[in-house]
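Entry type: protein chain
Record version: 2
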Amino acid sequence: MPDASPNQFISLIKYAKYVFTDSFHALVFSHIYEKQYYIFNRDREKSMNSRIKSLMSLLRTEDRLCD
């Protein structure tokens, strides 16, 4: 939902059963709210992938990265 407000964005994650995303911030909030999440690589923004992969490595959730 690209037009979600910040509050809507957080609420969508907070009340989700699963989160499937390519967003760094969705990854962060999914972890905070202890959600099951899976992350997709961003084809259009390679620099974002390194930030996501670094955080997933710190969280030891690399197995949730989908190509």
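Comment: The chain has a mean pLDDT of 90.
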